[in-house]
Amino acid sequence: MGEEDYYLELCERPVQFEKANPVNCVFFDEANKQVFAVRSGGATGVVVKGPDDRNPISFRMDDKGEVKCIKFSLENKILAVQRTSKTVDFCNFIPDNSQLEYTQECKTKNANILGFCWTSSTEIVFITDQGIEFYQVLPEKRTLKLLKSHNINVNWYMYCPESAVILLSTTVLENVLQPFYFRAGTMSKLPKFEIELPAAPKSTKLSLSERDIAMATIYGQLYVLFLRHHSRTSNSTGAEVVLYLLPREGACKKMHILKLNRTGKFALNVVDNLVVVHHQDTETSVIFDIKLRGEFDGTVTFHHPVLPARSIQPYQIPLAGPAAVTSQSPIPCKLYSSSWIVFQPDIIISASQGYLWNLQVKLEPIVKLLPDKGRLMDFLLQRKECKMVILSVCSQMLSESDRATLPVIATVFDKLNHEYKKYLDAEQSYTMAVEAGQSRSNPLLRRPVRTQAVLDQSDVYTHVLSAFVEKKEMPHKFVIAVLMEYIRSLNQFQIAVQHYLHELVIKTLVQHNLFYMLHQFLQYHVLSDSKPLACLLLSLESFYPPAHQLSLDMLKRLSTANDEIVEVLLSKHQVLAALRFIRGIGGHDNISARKFLDAAKQTEDNMLFYTIFRFFEQRNQRLRGSPNFTPGEHCEEHVAFFKQVFGDQALMRPTTF
To answer: Which of 256, 378, 410, 412 would bridge 243 by S-S if both were Cys, CB 3.0 to 4.6 A apart?
Structure first.
């Protein structure tokens, strides 16, 4: 399989740590995404590495027995280590604070600590088999203060650091889950819910395994993912992933079912809002996107994999050491190894090889694997790094080899402009709220974030349309149809069309002498009125005489002041057009000769200058009986220029009656 076929890859720069062995124990902290390598209980050193910090934290601690769990508080301020089932030890890593260890025993009698989670830089939760205890750590006093506790039988627990929610498994079947939410010193109990276990014969005791549950944020909402190895309905084969939405308020609700159509060992990741399901037996993975349309049965939506199953892209283990040593070929990494451990959202750890990777989605290969352009766009528009891929898809569908039909092109443009319009509306609402002074009363008011899915007109013009109209091999009717399709889509979403798109249409029509079509587009207001467009029409007068009148009509419809129209024309060096316009409205007796002569001279067209100069000489003769300019008109330099180019004899002689 070529590299272009793999849509999942391991990150280029993994976090490397000392491999797990009898002397070195490896721990992973999901909140800080840190790997701890603890040698001989810490006596011969602890090395902590995270994906962002390239400088590992190293320290030693006394070997006081086997380490069960070790984690830093947020911002690496305080270290917590669990060595027994009753206590957790703490050590400050704050400058000027005592480095001496202090200990906290769990409050509930006869309870065993299953583990602990930091919810902030100084707040920690102990999870015991009899409930949870929420503490505030006071590092300067080297002590802990119990903030709140809750008694409940606990089988196992799970923590989602992004949403600060802890899930406790309760009851004999372990399938009743009790969530708790933590924020700024408070602990809130959310409604508990039951995970439906698959139907099983009476003799087998089925319980919910911690291995089959994951928690992750997908499209900004927290979901509990349950890997059900056998469907509840006996007629359907294969495992499925059930997604329960866990809201801040209200009950947990079963929302989606991802059909895997196979059985065996699975592992789950979430990358870029996609649920990735790894299958160990076939050494392949599939991805699901819950935003894409699925089959809704009235209560839940069923989804199938977006793409055919593929392996993660083969990975070479980078060799460390001097260049001389690295001349040997890199070792291929064993993918889907039984020693892999998967953490949410996108982490894969190989403890035996000493690597931590982030799983990544590659968008380019997906373009070839998803032939349905509408579905492809729906998929790409939800991805974080989608802009350049979408632009390349647009260019590709307008290329000679992969040319799409107009209805498909229209669908793609509509999907782009739907996102564009959503952003424009949000931006406008925000601006209006700020102008109305709501930003002071509403601290939650935030400027909308412009994601890569927002492709505006300049993006499409620069990267797609301007190159497309230059293609000589394209039938011009198709080119014009595509341009008009994009303009139609913008109009449909009530987005003001930028004048450069209209200019592109007009230039293409003129290039192919399609003046009748241009006339119709203007007559029926297919092309919106604008001053730049009116100026462009004026410049076409020599090719197409009616363009002059079309342009003036447009300027008048825009309620442009007459002197402003003249200024616009002169700025575009349309000196004769400006003069004709001013004559047409009868204002030619009052205009400044110097302004027109300046403009004519700037064109460096001597015959044009001659024509304009002669016009004003004739006006002077008619109004004052002499062709000469008065000193007040400040035209001396123009008279001198006229003499220099055409000679004294070319000046008009006064006519006497």
So the answer is: 256
